[in-house]
Amino acid sequence: MSDFTYALDADGVATITWDVAGKSMNVMSMAGFAELDGMIDRALADGGVKGVILTSGKKDFAGGMDLNVIAAMREGGAQAIFDGVMGMHAILRKIERAGMDAKTLKGGKPIVAALPGTALGIGYELPLACHRIFVADNPKAKIGLPEIQVGIFPGAGGTTRLIRKLGALVAAPFLLEGKLSDPKSAKANGLIDEVVAADGLLARAKEWVLAVKDADLVKPWDDKGYKMPGGNPYHPAGYMTFVGANAMVMGKTMGVYPAAKALMQAVYEGALVPFDVALRVEARNFTSVLLNPSSSAMIRSLFINKEALEKGANRPAAPDQTVKKLGVIGAGMMGAGIAYVSASAGIAVVLVDSTQEAADRGRAHSADLLDKAIQRRKMTEAGKAEVLGRILATTDYAALAGVDLIVEAVFEDPKVKADVTAKVEAAVGADCIYASNTSTLPITGLAAASARPDQFIGIHFFSPVDRMALVEIIRGRATGDRAVAKALDFVRQIRKTPIVVNDARYFYANRCILPYTNEGIRMVAEGVEPIFVENAAKLVGMPVGPLQLVDEISIDLGIKIAKATKAALGAAYPDDDVDAVVFALADQGRMGRKAKAGFYSYDAAGKREGLWDGLAKAWPVAAVQPDLVTVQHRLLMTQVLEAVRALEEGVLTDIREGDVGAILGWGFAPWSGGPFSWLDMIGAARAVEICDGLAAAHGVRFAAPALLRDLAAKGEGFYDRFGGRKAAA
């Protein structure tokens, strides 16, 4: 079945329509590229064709390259990748030159892109090679090059063309941050040429094609007098641009993301040579990135595995469980956030709290977020009214009649949650699924208050709900398959990424992140320079240091968790040394960012100013500091060893969920692809060696789990053994 169709009208304008069967969004394959190439040849060879319009048969233009194809390219090695990329360059260059005479640059046929909606990755690189880009006036459309976010960079000419089109300084956010733009912003930023009313898109494209002159078809970089905007690296202004860009890249990536380095190298070297040579430079750097273990792991976790989980890779067999009406109990920040994302996804929401004032305040949270979206031109007043119209704020449990899913988000107290469970089950139908949004309390224990424990499940949202992509679904001992399917279908409706874990204290995410913060605090107590701890974490790819994260979470919450854990574990409790620090801060009222005082100092507006100078007085800095790698290994291993233990214990049943959940849930070093990918990257034997050294120096918390030792002994990795599929519980 063809990905492209070709039609020639009576005026001599050929329209090539991209419409991949069975896909909601077009993605490019190597077969699709070959098909497009043939149609371009056909148009250029046909004397009756005056020009070409490239468009889409779908509401959007394209979502990018099929990264499964890129993964397959990698298996062929460096030469196969380079040859494949250069083949793409040849096709796009053919479109760009459009049959014009190589010397006079005349006689070419106009080839334009008419984009009805979103155009990402190759979906934008392809239009960049066309002679004009028209985009429908669709505020929901996104234009840009997001490849850097999955560990690669635009390698089909996007890097070279955008730098030459905009200059390094202006192009930097679109290449190095993957910044996306709506059509009007894209026009203002020089990414596209015209924004056209949707119903006139093809007519305007045809009008331009038929009126074009030879000079309109010559790309600036093919013109003899071309000079790069802002100057090349040898130009005084260009030199300073590149100095600044390199500093910006290092500041944002801390040197651990190979794609950003390779992109900058491609830009710098490409700016010094003619365009066609620059394309080869781009292809060479793209090849090196694609073969880098970090990029491979990021593609696997952030694209292939993430997409599989979102499509229900671990969904039990059950009829469709689409949520029609949702009940949210508790209108605090979590409940209000859940109500907002659900109503925004088109779900009717009943938001219940103990007082009408609290319920209304929860609904007002949605209004505030919608107002901000209106200010950013992402929402209209009519759209705001529509979303708010789906949220009923009330104190009346009777309003829950007809609800098919409950998400309870009340105070983290088993007695309070049990009382709410009884009230809800008295008001809802017998088939309603009940989900508790809890971050620490075991679901099996909470389900004891339910008359229908098979319909009781945990759904752990991360804060702030509207921005965090991960949702952790917790299966209690009695939770049935329909409840799991309901939770997964709901998470898909609200466009977030789910992982499913079995019940245990702290589930998966929190059991891994708490040791990270604890290890940072423990090192401060030992005399390690606090800023050293924070910077070591950032230099290994963590988004924030452990001390800053404690402040963000709040120290009083940490104390509450510590007390509950100590009560449960008794003499086996391992963190008394951590508590000594945390409790001392609490005694001084330093409860974290919300109190404008914690490990960090804050100004009156709550802006972080720097680490609190009182830390050094309370916990003096040792004269001899550990080496950087040791500090980093302590911070990483505390997290990854908990992930391995979670897999061993059957809490985690799929390493894909472990990797994706770690990156999306608490920001575990995205460059690594997640804890299991990182262990595979360094090798199980090396991991055991690191663990043995840390355990000897710092205690049994670093002891290598039996599973890790077994993999080391057999020369296997996690993905070797489990293959990205479910592990035995």
Please tell me about this protein's structure:
With 729 residues, the protein is α/β, with parallel strands linked by helices. Among the domains are: 4-291, 2-enoyl-CoA Hydratase, Chain A, domain 1 (Alpha-Beta Complex), CATH 3.90.226; 325-504, 3-Layer(aba) Sandwich (Rossmann fold), CATH 3.40.50.720. It contains 31 helices and 21 strands. An eight-stranded mixed β-sheet has the order 14-13-12-15-16-17-18-19, with helices on both faces. The chain has a six-stranded mixed β-sheet with strand order 1-2-4-6-8-11, sandwiched between helices. A three-stranded mixed β-sheet has the order 7-9-10. The longest helix is centred in the N-terminal third of the chain and has 21 residues, at 77-97.
Characteristic terms for this protein:
single chain, 729 residues, alpha/beta, 2-enoyl-CoA Hydratase, Chain A, domain 1, Rossmann fold, 8-stranded mixed beta sheet, 6-stranded mixed beta sheet, 21 strands, globular
Q: Give the number of DSSP strands.
A: 21
CATH class of the domain at 4-291, please?
Answer: Alpha Beta
Taking the sheet with the most strands, its summary is: 8 strands, mixed
Major sheet: order of its strands?
14-13-12-15-16-17-18-19
Helix content: 40-55%
Any idea of the CATH topology of the domain at 4-291? Answer: 2-enoyl-CoA Hydratase, Chain A, domain 1
Distance, first to last CA: 42 Å
Q: How much beta, percentage-wise? A: 5-15%
Architecture of the domain at 4-291, CATH level 2?
A: Alpha-Beta Complex
**Which descriptor suits the 3D outline?**
globular
CATH superfamily of the domain at 4-291: 2-enoyl-CoA Hydratase, Chain A, domain 1
Assembly category: single chain
CA-based gyration radius: 28 Å
* Strand-pairing-aware structural class: alpha/beta
Task: Provide a count of the helices.
Answer: 31
Low-confidence stretches: none
The mean pLDDT is 91
